[in-house]
Amino acid sequence: MIKNIDEYLIEIEKDIEKVYEISNNLISFKKTTKEIKKSIIQDWKDKNIDDNQKVKCLSTLKESYKQYLKIFDKKSKDNLIDLNQQYNQYVDTYNKDKKPLKKKIPVKGMKILGISLVPLMMLLALCISYLCVNKINLTNQNSIIAFSLSMLILVVCLIFLVFIIIFSTKKSVLDYKNKSYICASIGFTASFFDTLGIGSFATNTGLLKATKSLKDDKKLPGTLNIGMAIPNLFSGVLFMTSVSVDLTTLITFVLSAIIGSLIGSSIVNKINKKLIAIIMGVVLAITSILMLLTVKGIEVFPSGSAMGVSDVWWKLFLGCLAFVFLGIMMSFGVGLYAPAMAVISFLGINFLVVFPIMTCSAGLTMHINGYKFYFKNNYMPKTSFFMTIGGIIGVLTSYTIVFLGLITLLKIDQTLITDVFKWLSVFVIAYSSYTLFRSYFKQRKVVISAVPKISYNIDYLDFNNYINSFYTNTFVKNI
């Protein structure tokens, strides 16, 4: 039976609600299982159960958990298959008698677009970088190492792209109402300015809200991490070939930021976010003033010209500590770019060196976080996909204008470009400080009520029946 457009939309909305219902139930299921496990261990410590009961109950809990996890997985996959079938039928019906530019892109079309356009843009950018801007010297050891690292990072980008194309596009119907060209334009704009060191978080957030593409603020971090991961990291590949940087400094600082982000993700719920916001706000406010004193035209303090600090051990050590701290701050929602600019400047390093360091650090961290957001369904799949498409084009455009157009063809002095970027960075850091202060005062108004401790009334005499009945009635029955 052929349905009309409205009937398809009703079915699609119902299926979308079901997807999120299953996803939310799965999260609750995992959390509850951990709580039950803790309760069993606590009862054993309180000597309410003996060793044999503890071992038997934990074993039963583990087996039941695996069994019901498979049920969730099957229901989730089946529901997503039904949803995509409904959406594809809706797209086919909608596209009838529509002009080519007004037709909606089906899921298969998105996959073709991603697998063809993104690698093509990458190849074009690499050709500009290696053949025009900074020709690779295969007789120089540093050039060979830099090229090898660039190719390794490029492989990471392509693996994530394949992941998005195979898995994430299947969920693109979840935010099907967002227009493709708007999402791509947002990605283009954010990545264009991101490549200039202005940062993409504020740009993306403002544009997503201005275009009413963001309906749920909780999905913002996931959308930005997945949507900007590839453009951000790929710009790092281009900067590694275009900006002279000490490789030891680059690698150690990037690894430090990644280690910091992993530490931060494990402690993010244990530290007061208001305290972090006010401390970083003050630090960046002071930093912006100090940075202002180093820019062209003021120059109270001299700016650095070193390509790295691997020859000064204490500077390298301090830099690593600073980037571990910045990586931790990323887990609390503090952007990396502004404070990274300050750290590089204060270490006496040439300001342009910050670009490959901060783009690689932020990009790799986004890749790690992106997988987490995907499995939690806590992002907008279609929006992030087209932000990636637009973002790659934005990186290519911005890089071509600055490094090919201004520096290579027009022969504009690189120090002049650096001076412009330093002036921009002062405003970026000052604005970042303002947003952190604003975040602090907003959080002060939020009163979080205490979460009551749940008692599960565990039946240890017939634990197998208890846990299966509990899982079925609490999580599975209604999905």
UniProtKB/TrEMBL annotation:
InterPro entries linked: TM_pro_TauE-like
Alphabetically ordered keywords of this record: Cell membrane, Membrane, Transmembrane, Transmembrane helix
Highest taxon in the source lineage: Bacteria
Main location: membrane
Pfam families: TauE
Record-annotated membrane-spanning stretches: 112-131, 143-169, 181-202, 222-240, 247-269, 275-295, 316-337, 343-364, 385-408, 420-437
One GO cellular component term noted in the UniProt record for this chain: plasma membrane
Sections of the chain in a coiled coil: none
Entry membrane topology: Multi-pass membrane protein
Protein's cellular compartments: Cell membrane; Membrane
Keyword Zinc-finger belongs to the record: no
Keyword Mitochondrion: no
Family under the similarity heading: Belongs to the 4-toluene sulfonate uptake permease (TSUP) (TC 2.A.102) family.
PANTHER family linked to this entry: MEMBRANE TRANSPORTER PROTEIN HI_0806-RELATED
Annotated protein name in UniProt: Probable membrane transporter protein
Species the sequence originates in: Spiroplasma tabanidicola
Phylogenetic classification of the source organism: Bacteria, Bacillati, Mycoplasmatota, Mollicutes, Entomoplasmatales
